[in-house]
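Self-study notes.
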Amino acid sequence: MMRLQCPAVFLLLCFAAPMRGQQPARPAGDSYQLKPSPKTATWGYFDAKTPPALRIKSGDTVEMQTLVTASRERFETAGLWPDRVEPAWREIYEQVKDHGPGPHMLTGPVYIEGAEPGDVLEVRIQKIRLAIPYALNTFSPGRGFLPEDFPYERVKVIPLDEKRMVAQFADGIEIPLRPFFGTMGVAPPASAGRVSSAPPWVNAGNLDNKELVAGTTLFIPIHAPGALFQAGDGHAGQGDGEVDITAMETSLVGTFQFVVRKDVHLRWPRAETPTEFITMGLDEDLTAATKMAVREMIDFLVQEKHMTRDDAYMLASVAADLHITQVVDGNKGVHMILSKAIFTKAR
């Protein structure tokens, strides 16, 4: 990890409260870089006991490099091992033996000073860029949404054209790139111990929400001192649902600004884009996840837009859209999107 030179004069940035409009300007902080290595990455879990890879202050910015989620066997099947596999990935594979139960190589954790349980971590996703010129999509026996239909393994290498920002899926098929991090999360409550990186939960984690591109903000309830933010599971793009259990899996470099919010209290992760509000539901049962996303939207409208619960329920029905985030990660995900444009007056 390397600390970048900080400008002599702080720039002022305005931070938006989660779904409640603008707050007073706050000074920008220092900037850092965090690259993956056996000492700055974890493999497959979130845990409040994980030692920090980097310590920063609220308002600081970190450029984090992350590694593609894949096994050595997948790389070998795809004909990529070892020449086209990043050296950092190989070093972690060879040296980190304390890993699991999830599959993701995660960079971090980042400890934010002053973050305490009950606060909210505002994660401003400023930039995302590709780190390698390919992605992988795979399915295997017993996994994905249709394991009974595909009881075998397939690995596909998808070239990425960063200049044109398209993925060359096949001859005559190009997919626009919308890179995002499938996994962004904080430590779970200490009482939970080590939890798998696979299912998303109260600490966010493997949300696989394709709306969380550069320019968006994720709000995560904090459960442990320092928050202990980790990121990884880079996706060059994904369809809602992620039905075969993988997206266009790749390595990404993201620039995040972290702000500890003591004026906000959330039960579950929420997000905000420049044009939309997003609530989320996470549960093993898809119906329960859907109800959670709707109830979270109603709560937002009541608390932040000062609506009655009846009107909030009605507005969610006539103006908000439900999306299936993913159906393959244990806890299924549903997110509800509401356009900011419908609010013609400040509330």
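Second protein, same conventions, sequence then structure:
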Amino acid sequence: MATPTTGASVSALEVGTNWKVWVPCFGMALCSWLSFVDRQVLAALAPTILRETGLNAGQFAIVNSYFFVAYTIANPLWGTILDYVGLRVGMLMGVAIWTAASVSHGWMTGLIGFAMCRALLGFGEGVTFPGGLRTAVESLPANKRARAIALSFSGGTLGGVAAPFIAVPIGLAYGWRNAFMFTGALGLAWMGLWAFIARPPFLPKTEHRVRALAWANPLERRFWAIVFSYALPAIAPGPILTLFSVYLNQGLGVSQADLTGLLWMPPLAWGVGYFFWGWAADRYVPDTRRPVGMFLLLTVCSLVLGFTTWTTSVMTTVAIISWATFIGGGFQMVALKVGSYWYPREQAAMMTGIASGSWALVNYILLQFLGPLFNQHRYAEAWWMIALCPAVGIAAWLFLSRNELRT
């Protein structure tokens, strides 16, 4: 395994006394919050949009799959770009693209238009998590890295919480198209904030950048170890946030208005998972060892999702789904904690791009199967398909990392 990076932009003492070093991570938390608000508006208003546009559940899954195709490509691409051009410029470029994409949803009427908007949104949002991890690495020392990553990523889950509370009232009062206009205004506000904080005294004057564009090498074993420790094990929150509102509405009879009080719970559990498992990773995952025990524990816990259809209780269903997102957040934090030691510090964004991009690709592949299953109301098969992904991923990771990874 590569020697762990122990340096940081600031000393441990400075971290304890200087609150400014945490500001960039808070800024990235707001960015990830915005990214999930923008991507979840469509899901939160799905019953209304499907009714008014004539799309069915299968077509809705296809539309969202285009987001994940673009997101798959964009994550490693943005990771490489950020490592080269830096956080300030790279983040402004990415958020500008996805803000334009988010607003354009409000002008669409059918399958092709929505698919194009989702693809552009996915391309822009690919900057989010590579930027979040790189910000954590630049701002804080290695012994606080998982918690810094959790903070940078946590806004995403809170954005999933906030999306129905923002989108549904606006959609019901002013029409669903205006909900997308509102989120566009939020994107412009964040860009102004980032232009202010992405500089000293918040971020270091000099970032650790690569001297030339470096691309992920799929011939390396560490590449595939990142993919299998992250993409399959952490997959549950993706299809859950995409299709859960459809399941509640069509499978359990929950109305559009009543969805507001339920859809915030799984993303909140996801965010709690970030912080709980981020703390656990910092405390219990040594820098030079494979976290086999923690990965196996998470794998066993992830199987609960398969039993979703055993109940017709809405609240029990929400609890099971929320548990699945909590465990998904755990897989993310542990995988990224370990992965940050497999790649050098100046390639931190690229490493995260590999992880997030492969995660998006698995989402795309799953949606090709989940959409038809939802159309046919074969929900048990759909939930079990998601629940078994972690076992497959961790089995592959155990093989790839069996002698510990070396660069």
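Instructor comment on the second fold: The radius of gyration is 20 Å.
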